Structures are given as structure tokens and as C-alpha cells.
UniProtKB/TrEMBL annotation:
GO molecular function terms listed in the Swiss-Prot or TrEMBL record: efflux transmembrane transporter activity
Organismal lineage: Bacteria, Pseudomonadati, Planctomycetota, Planctomycetia, Gemmatales
Source species: Tuwongella immobilis
Keyword Transport in record: no
Coiled coil: none
GO CC aspect terms: efflux pump complex
Gene3D superfamilies membership: 2.40.30.170, 2.40.420.20, 2.40.50.100
Name the UniProt record assigns to this protein: CusB-like beta-barrel domain-containing protein
Amino acid sequence: MTPPETVPKRRIPWGWLLLVVAVSGLAAGRVYFPGEPRAELTTVPEVDTKRVAVTVVPVTTREIVRKASTVGTLYGFEEIPISAKVDGRVMRVLHDNGDRVKPGELLVEMEPTDAQLAVEESQRAYELELARLGLKELPPPGKQINLNELPSVAKAIAEEANALGKLERVQLLRKAISQEEKQERETEVEVARTALLQAKLEAEVHLAAARQRKATLMAAQQRLKDLQIVAPTVTTSDNHPVDFAVAARKVSPGEYLRSMPGESSTLFQLILDRKLKLMASLPERYSRDIKPGLQVELRVDSLPGETVFGQVARVSPLIDRSARTFQIEVHVPNDDRRLFPGSFAKAEVTLKTAAVMTVPAESVIRFAGVSKVFVIRNDVAHEVPVVVGDSLTESRATNAPVWVEVSGKLKPGDSVVRTGQAALAEGVPVRLRVMDGPSTVAQKSERLPGTAAVMPTTTGGR
């Protein structure tokens, strides 16, 4: 009988077995090598998967500047259209667009021949009336003329006195003269008195005619003067030097100008631009806060990155019924003339400074028109509805944190969730974690319940 074939026993590779044991010990966190001291046990927090990890920041009180934003258009402090006062043909135009002119400076000169002839004619008519009165010039306004000093009246007075003298002599010689002669002398006195009255009346007529002739002469002289069109004289409340900028020229040499109502045209458009006016509208809710004297910050496209300051000068007392807005007028200094009338400007009116509660913008959750934040109390999240106000930043840097004003059942120092609120609801337990990297707000760090001892591994080996 053939004996059964024996299977040889396989030798166990002890080297590989030791390697597997060593790797298993490393994975378990516990490896002991002969002759080496054991390391001390350390504790690390176990991750509580039942709690939501969040970061928090305290509600902070900050000073916030209340501002009302608006837009508007810049206008010249005064914009003056220049028109002709009299008819005539233009001889010369002395200025054009962009020129600077001072008050009283000549702008347009018109043909003066007809006006000069009218002045000459009026002068002769006036002199004729003065000659009838026996005067060289009328007294100035307010001073009365004595009619008795006029030659015609003085002659009538003398004739009256002569008639009275004759009548007195007749009365002394009662019996030496006849009744007829006496009546003749009395008639002469009456005639003299009537002649005196007539002389005074004629003197008043000639005096009135002389005044009328003088007025006609003055009108003719003014018309001659108006043929030279000049820049107007303007006085400002702050006695600021005044000069004009020519914004538009609309007249040419040889053109015939008419001054009739409805036909008069603008020759020049002058503006005062050392100070400008911003005309803007604000919503009705600011009507109680806007007062003259408030500072205004303006920005225009022609000065990128720059802020120009002005001041509220006037506030309209009327609210527009259709737009529910009211008008304000802002005065803007422009001595360097870097701003131009007609420019579009964005403006912010500084209202007041207030201390408000603020939270990071990312802490606010908005849903269905409701804003809320999560506040951590005793490691539990609680919803707090808030009303969001203005935004502010800690600096002008592009990546600066944005904070928002909030009001509600909060108080300064409350811990508000900054990150992790997407997984939160009312009453959800949380665990706090420290944000990686530098932060402008210190995070609260707490030891979590439940720790385990872990033996650290070593880097040495055989």
C-alpha cells in the first residue's frame, strides 16, 4: 500500500508579521518599543458631531454719521441773460464765449446816429422852455421854484402895485377928483390883479413844459447810453469780488436788434461762477432733519476721487405732491473754477452723529423680507429679529469688513454668529471655534466636554 503523500509545512514570515503589528500600533496611536520610556498622555477635544460649529463676534457700539444722499445739477450762482433795451443795428461785439468780463465792461456797441439826433432835438426844445421862463436851468428835484421871481410874474406884480398906488392917491383927494376918475383907478387895480394871476398861471404852464422837455431830453440821453450794452453791476452779500464768465454769445455785428415785448432776444448769457448752486431734491422723510448750514459732500465725474464741500443755504418749505420730495439749495465755493455749471453731482448731506449697535454684514440673515441674527446664550443659538440700518466700514480699504447698524432685542456684548448660521435654527446647540488667521474681532474659545487620552507617536525607530 502506498503511504499517503505528506504536505510540507509552510514557514511563517516573522519579519512581515512584526511589520504588520507595528503598523497596527501606529494606527491605534500606541506603540511601545523595548527600552524606551513611555510619553506622557495628552488630551485633545473630541469632536461633538451633534453640535454646529460656529464663530461669533460681540455686538459693538459704534459712532455712525447719518447722511442723506441725493443727486442734482450745478448752476451758476447767478445766471444773467443780457438783452437790448432799445432798437438798433449792432456795430461791434467785443466779447465771446469763455471770456471773463467785469461789471460795467462793454459787450456790444450799436449804431448811435439816430439817438444822437434825438438828444439834440430834445435839448433845443428844453432850452426854448427855459427861455420863456427866463431861466438857464431848472432847480434840482425837491427844491421849489419861487414864481414871484420869474420875470413875467414880477412884471405883473409891479403893475398891480402901480395901480394900487394910483387908487390910494385918488382916495386921499376925495373932493378934488371926480367919481368917474375914481372908478377908473379901481378898475385898473382889478385889471392888474387879474394880470398877475394870469402871469402866475402861464409861468406854471411853462414850468411844467420845461420839466416835460427835460424828461424827454433825459430819455433821449438814456437811449443813447443804452446803445452801449455793458455787463451789469452785481453786489453780493459777502462782498466777494464779482466777475462774469460769458457762457453764450448770440449776437453778430450788423444784426438789427428789436426791443419789443415778445421779440427781444438774448445777446449774451453771463454767469457768476466763483460760487455755484446745487439744486437737488430729498425724500419727504428728511424734511425735519435738513436745516440751513449743514455740510454737504459733493462728487462730480470731472474730479474723480475728489470730494468737494458745500453748505445747505435754503430749504424749500413745500413738499412736491406728486414726487413727495422737497427742494434744497446748496452753495459750493468755486474760487479755483474747477467745477462747471451744468455738471451732474452726487451729494451727501451730513445730518448728525449717533451711537448705534452694529454687527458684521454677514451675520444678518434675510429671508422673505425678514432680517434676523443668531445670538449664542449658554451654547445654544437663539433667533433675534432685527431692523437693519446704514452700513459702515472700519477703513477705506477695498477688503475692509462691512458692519451694519441693527436695532432689536440686542445689547452691546451679545455674541452674534458670524459664520455657520446656515445650519442653525432656534434652540440648536453649538460649539465655538476660533477663526483661522488674524481677525479684527477676538473669538471666544471654550473647552468642550468629553476628552480622550492619546499617546503621541514618536519619530524615532530602529
